[in-house]
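[#protein-structures] MJ: dropping methylmalonate-semialdehyde dehydrogenase (CoA acylating) here for a structure pass
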Amino acid sequence: MKEIHHWIDGKEYKGTSGRFSDVFNPATGEVQARLSLATKAELDHAVERAAEAQVKWGATNPQRRARVMMEFVRLINRDMDKMAEVLSSEHGKTFPDAKGDIQRGLEVIEFCIGAPHLLKGEFTDSAGPGIDMYSMRQPLGVVAGITPFNFPAMIPLWKMGPALAAGNAMILKPSERDPSVPLMLAALLQEAGLPDGVLQVVNGDKDSVDAILDNPVIQAVGFVGSTPIAQYIYERAAATGKRAQCFGGAKNHMIIMPDADLDQAADALVGAGYGAAGERCMAISVAVPVGEKTADALIERLVPRIEKLKVGPYTAGNDVDYGPVVTKAAKENILRLVQSGIDQGAELVIDGRDFNLQGYENGFFVGPHLFDRVTPDMDIYKTEIFGPVLSTVRAGSYEEAIGLAMSHEYGNGTAIYTRDGDTARDFASRINIGMVGINVPIPVPLAYHTFGGWKKSGFGDLNQHGPDAFRFYTRTKTVTARWPSGIKEGGEFNFRAMD
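AK: finished. structure tokens for methylmalonate-semialdehyde dehydrogenase (CoA acylating):
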């Protein structure tokens, strides 16, 4: 059985805990590897070595650090297909979706090549007699990233890129469900010229998370995962004086106005609701058509599109629409929530509970589900399902529709489909949600803007990637300097005439 270990000081580091976690092939349900879980002592050792390496790395000028990022981009592109293959085998994503996972992370690394500009401070000359003032953005030291299973390349890249480009060392604890790609990225960074010890990849479970939160050397923690854990990490990090940006769950609504292009809206809903088996924090899981006529026409268009979805392993070809969910437990939780929707009175228009794929009966596949006439008191509306389940909540008016999204406890992403500019502008202005799409179903910003949700989808005041990331991973130092003006005594500046 293959064993997966840690990456410490620029090389594979075999764990000594004797504790392992199984890494599955979600398509077959088989265990394909065993992952070594770190001890607290191993985590602390990685931090100690990172702190030593960070001193020189932090003193390296930003342009040289940016050149490492530039070479890292080249190497990721070189090994894109190889990493996508590994990602698909551990997560279950289709091959094109796995490449997209890597690509969206790569774009943040491309943005980080501009670190010298992003790290510039401010300067005021002659703030007083002979006095200048200036600010410097300096690295925090050692920081940590705790990343989720659903984007095993993108989110680690979102964390490590700005942190390293800003001059920090990073402890990365990836998900134990699909750990191989983060280790591959660490090896590519070393090949790109990152000094040993500046990026340490430590695999573990809750024990490792708590060791990160308790370690006094670590100055900041970035996390993506479920809301309860996000809140736990945020509160515990704050109690130990660490900065934290913690992103949690979501329940993203798409409002479909009567004037919308319903074919366009239906296509968008199918891609946004069922892509990646719904295992996206920016997935659209709630459709809100305004008016009974709009709702009926939308359902009529959704049904044939959903029934044509091709579900299968990534090895079945690039025309597969989505693959299995990540674990058996995830599949069981999705089906439990589907049953709760039926029991609480929602109309199950498309029933995927009996989905079975020949030859992959032990895989973690879940068929597509479509609910209609869902109400806000139902569990399938209140809970993040994280699976291929789309719920339709009918609204009688625009105000009712926007009220649904605004009153939900999550506030990650939302979208509206309409041809009316006034409605779109009002929606974008009023909605209390962090990322908004107008005729765009999954409004994930590009790398030079910032990504982050509101309400219980995000804890902390600085978001991921974009300029916010460099603010998060640096602290500002302001210097007031006084240099008295005038010629120093003893200076000889006269031009002597020739005799």
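MJ: nice. The first helix runs from residue 40 to 59.
AK: one more thing. The chain has 16 helices and 23 strands.
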